[in-house]
């Protein structure tokens, strides 16, 4: 994976000192909270319900064991012994003290990590496919492009005060594991006649106005990609709405002027931007790519796996995915134990995962947008050992992509924007469906919960989505069906009046019963829903 | 009132006119751009302009950064002034976008301003200043 | 009743105005009547509190109970982590929030 050179390190170190100075000025009273807020946000520091919350960037979700161990250390030293992995492949700490924040950042910088642009109206962490470099279906490894974009977007002087936040995802597989078209810009790397380029989608997003990004360019040559993205951003910075915070995302601009007009403006701007020499030369791309060369796989590794242990076999079938290298597999570590908090991991668990990566996955880990962790390169001969060690750490939950593998935002238990709690709903649903045979019978069923309209829990993209709202001071939950964040991307529809906490759990259960009755062949829940429509579900739930 | 100026020529202290007034056949040599003015409207006249003042009524409104770069990219060499809600924590970005004078509404500590300009030795991306992007430094 | 809450500037801890100081316990919160705004301005200016605001609360025998669930969550701690709340030994503490 990517290693900082002196330039990268100097920039991150300088940022820590800048933030240290900003905190000092705030604590000394030289700055008001109004002045400090955008500065702390630009460095990922929020003031949440109980304390400051720090969001640490995990660029394109890739980590090594040394970094993962430092994340555990930070959880112990500066927080309360745990961290929360997010849908943008980052990690959040919930109990940070402002007065200790700069020291924390110094420790992060020592392992090439930071919190730069993890909030604020700027270009956020570049996200990517958690199986990058391991997936059998990828055209290239997307991470060198994500790293190029990371560097280009870091302290971009023109795009640090955009109308609103800006999220970019880069993938390189036909299967979309990163909700690419629900980003402000989604890039799918493709090859045309052997030439590498990007399909560029602009104007997707969730929030209160969910939109699927339209394709703005079917093929931008690789050597033009940064200039093209710069042109996309400049049009947005100049013409994105600034009169209404709820209409300020690029999706609204693209929607209001239309994809054709936006495309026309980008083409015009690109013709100019391309003359500025923004795109780095091939040599820089090659330098970055070299860091992402495949690890030294054992070419004689066996494909055989001993499935004798039935619990292991269940986990194997559910959480282990094919690798492009024979003899290897991709291991998904579900952070969704029954009754647990989706995406949370204790410092000890983080250490266990780091050690497993070091010993069994060429020192690599990934964070997924579904709030799980991946060991991308595990030899099949090691799978049983890895499973045993995960099991000892209560990390062998065999529920990947099942109904209990729930995405949930922190909700009203932590978040100052939330209207309702998300986590207790996730816990009740996971507990209701705790029986593994029952879950496996239901098959892939992506359930996603947000505690407010900002949709951090991706409810719009859930096969079943749950949105928590505040109804006269009481938590209420709306149910949506039919969303997807994958390559069959779609936005879920609200099915009817909302429920209280137990009511929504019952409604979800009824929906699964309808599915079981109506499904044909190996249809997933979403396939059946798309075929039969909302009515049979509505009838069972409200009837 | 210009507090920070990074040019060697004489400061131009005539009042600037609005973009509309300027385009209305004014002979003015100083013009003021509001955030929603199109900087490109000035491109035919750059050689007779001495000062372009870009307004930042609120620091969160970043349109002025694009205006500045567009003007510099088109070859404008006159004074480019950021005026308004200009804060010490934005000023380095502004300079990278081509501003060479600053008229903040509030007072800024000159030492803080100097620190902001010198804090980062390197920049990842090219902009409208002389900074050489890191990728160019890496590959000579 | 009206009570004042905010976060400690340095530690971020949730705090409540007691009439002459800030406490982490909502039970200590004092009714400020019509004086909320002036107290907030003075206290924030003195950096004894960050981002403070006035809320409605109901007087109960156990002390003030914030009217809105959000402030009750703030007063106790995350309902899903009883061990991290101000009342880790009380298994029913979460019910007070709802």
Structural class of chain B: alpha/beta
* Shape type of chain A: globular
C-alpha Rg of chain A, in Å?
Answer: 23 Å
Instruction: Give the C-alpha Rg of chain B.
Output: 15 Å
Which sheet architecture does the biggest sheet of chain B show? 6 strands, mixed
Query: Uncertain runs of chain B with pLDDT below 50, 5 residues or more?
Result: none
Our estimate of the beta-strand percent of chain A is: 15-25%
Assembly type of the chains comes to heterotrimer
Tell me roughly what share of residues is in helical segments of chain A: 25-40%
Tally of helical segments of chain A: 17
Distance between the termini of chain A: 54 Å
Got a strand count of chain B? Answer: 6
Helical content class of chain B: 25-40%
Strand order of the largest sheet of chain B: 1-6-5-4-3-2
Number of helices of chain B: 5
Count interface residues per chain for the largest interface.
Answer: A-B, 39 and 35 residues
Number of strands of chain A: 20
What does this structure look like?
The complex is a heterotrimer of chains A (543), B (140) and C (98). With 543 residues, chain A is of the alpha+beta class. Helix content of chain A is 37%, strand content 17%. Chain A has helices at residues 6-27, 33-41, 65-78, 98-109, 143-153, 225-239, 250-257, 259-273, 282-291, 310-319, 347-360, 383-392, 423-432, 436-442, 501-518, 525-532, 535-542, and strands spanning 45-47, 52-56, 62-63, 82-85, 91-96, 127-128, 168-171, 185-192, 195-202, 215-221, 320-322, 328-333, 344-346, 365-367, 373-379, 407-408, 447-450, 464-471, 474-481, 493-494. In chain A, a hairpin with a 2-residue loop joins strand 18 (464-471) and strand 19 (474-481). In chain A, helix 1 runs antiparallel to helix 2 and helix 15 packs across helix 16 (525-532). The longest helix of chain A is centred in the first third of the chain and has 22 residues, at 6-27. The mean pLDDT of chain A is 97. Chain B has 140 residues and is an alpha/beta fold. Chain B is globular. The mean pLDDT of chain B is 94. Chain C has helices at residues 36-45, 69-76, 93-97; strands at 2-7, 14-17, 22-23, 50-60, 63-66. Chain C has a five-stranded antiparallel β-sheet. Chain C is globular. The two termini of chain C are 19 Å apart. The A-B interface holds A 5, 7-8, 10-11, 14, 17-18, 21-22, 35, 38-39, 121, 151-152, 154-163, 234, 237-238, 242, 272, 276-278, 280-281, 283-284, 287 and B 35, 59-63, 65-66, 69, 73, 87, 89-90, 92-94, 96-97, 115, 119-127, 133-139.
């Amino acid at each position: 994976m990517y290693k900082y050179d002196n330039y990268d390190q100097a920039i991150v170190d300088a940022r820590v000192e800048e933030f240290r100075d900003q905190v000092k000025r705030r604590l000394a009273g030289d700055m008001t909270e109004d002045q400090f807020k955008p500065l702390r946000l630009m460095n990922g520091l929020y003031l949440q319900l109980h304390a400051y919350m720090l969001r640490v960037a995990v660029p394109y979700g890739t980590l090594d064991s040394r970094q993962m161990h430092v994340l555990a250390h930070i959880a112990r030293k500066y927080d309360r012994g745990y961290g929360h992995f997010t849908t943008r492949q980052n990690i959040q700490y919930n109990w940070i003290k402002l007065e200790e924040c700069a020291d924390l950042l110094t420790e992060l910088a020592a392992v090439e990590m930071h919190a730069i642009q993890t909030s604020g109206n700027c270009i956020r962490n570049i996200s990517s496919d958690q199986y990058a470099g391991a997936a059998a279906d990828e055209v290239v490894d997307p991470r060198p492009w994500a790293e190029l974009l990371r560097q280009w977007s870091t302290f971009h002087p023109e795009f640090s005060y955009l109308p609103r936040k800006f999220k970019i995802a880069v993938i390189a597989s036909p299967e979309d594991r990163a909700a690419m078209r629900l980003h402000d810009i989604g890039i799918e790397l493709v090859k045309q006649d052997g030439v590498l380029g990007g399909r560029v989608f602009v104007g997707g997003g969730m929030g209160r106005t969910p939109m699927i990004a339209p394709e703005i360019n079917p093929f931008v040559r690789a050597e033009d990609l940064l200039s093209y993205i710069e042109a996309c951003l400049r049009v947005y910075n100049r013409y994105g709405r600034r009169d209404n915070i709820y209409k300020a995302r690029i999706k609204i601009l693209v929607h209001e002027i239309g994809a054709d007009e936006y495309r026309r403006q980008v083409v015009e701007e690109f013709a100019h931007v391309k003359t500025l020499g923004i795109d780095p030369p091939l040599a820089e791309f090659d330098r970055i790519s070299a860091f992402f060369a495949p690890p030294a796989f054992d070419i004689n590794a066996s494909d055989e796996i001993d499935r004798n242990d039935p619990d292991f076999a269940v986990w194997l079938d559910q959480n282990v995915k094919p690798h492009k290298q024979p003899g290897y597999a991709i291991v998904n570590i579900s952070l969704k134990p029954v009754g647990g908090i989706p995406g949370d991991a204790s410092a000890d668990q983080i250490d266990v995962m780091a050690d497993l990566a070091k010993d069994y996955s060429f020192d690599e880990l990934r964070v997924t947008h579904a709030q799980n962790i991946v060991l991308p390169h595990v030899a099949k001969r090691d799978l049983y050992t890895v499973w045993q060690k995960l099991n000892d750490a209560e990390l062998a939950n065999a529920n990947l992509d099942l109904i209990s593998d729930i995405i949930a935002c922190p909700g009203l238990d932590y978040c100052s924007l939330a209207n309702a709690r998300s986590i207790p709903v996730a816990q009740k649903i996971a507990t209701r469906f705790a029986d593994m045979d029952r879950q496996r019978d239901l098959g892939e069923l992506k359930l996603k919960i947000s505690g407010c309209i900002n949709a951090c829990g991706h409810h719009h993209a859930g096969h079943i989505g749950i949105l928590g709202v505040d109804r006269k001071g009481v938590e209420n939950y709306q149910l949506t069906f039919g969303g997807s964040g994958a390559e069959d991307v779609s936005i879920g529809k609200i099915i009817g009046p909302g429920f209280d906490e137990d009511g929504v759990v019952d409604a979800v259960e009824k929906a699964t019963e309808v599915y079981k009755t109506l499904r044909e062949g190996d249809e997933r829940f979403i396939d059946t829903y798309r075929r039969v429509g909302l009515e049979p579900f509505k009838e069972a739930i409200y009837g | 009132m210009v507090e920070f100026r990074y040019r060697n020529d004489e400061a131009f202290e005539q009042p600037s006119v609005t973009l509309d007034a300027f385009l209305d056949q004014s002979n003015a040599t100083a013009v003021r751009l509001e955030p929603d003015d199109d900087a490109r409207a000035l491109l035919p006249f750059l050689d007779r302009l001495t000062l372009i003042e870009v307004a930042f009524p609120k620091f969160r409104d970043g349109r002025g950064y694009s205006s500045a770069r567009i003007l510099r990219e088109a070859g404008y060499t006159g004074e480019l002034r950021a005026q308004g809600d200009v804060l010490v924590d934005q000023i380095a970005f502004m300079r990278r976008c081509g501003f060479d004078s600053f008229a903040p509404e509030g007072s800024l500590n000159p030492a803080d301003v100097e620190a902001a300009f010198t804090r980062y030795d390197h920049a990842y991306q090219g902009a409208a200043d002389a900074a050489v992007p890191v990728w160019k430094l890496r590959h000579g | 009743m009206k009570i004042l809450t905010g976060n400690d500037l340095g530690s971020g801890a949730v705090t409540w105005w007691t009439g002459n100081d800030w406490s982490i316990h909502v039970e200590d919160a004092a009714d400020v009547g019509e004086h909320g705004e002036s107290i907030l301005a003075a206290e924030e200016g003195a950096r004894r509190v960050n981002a403070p605001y006035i809320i409605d609360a109901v007087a109960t025998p156990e002390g003030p109970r914030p009217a809105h669930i959000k402030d009750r969550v703030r007063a106790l701690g995350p309902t899903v982590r009883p061990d991290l709340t101000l009342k880790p030994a009380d298994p029913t503490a979460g019910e007070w929030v709802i």
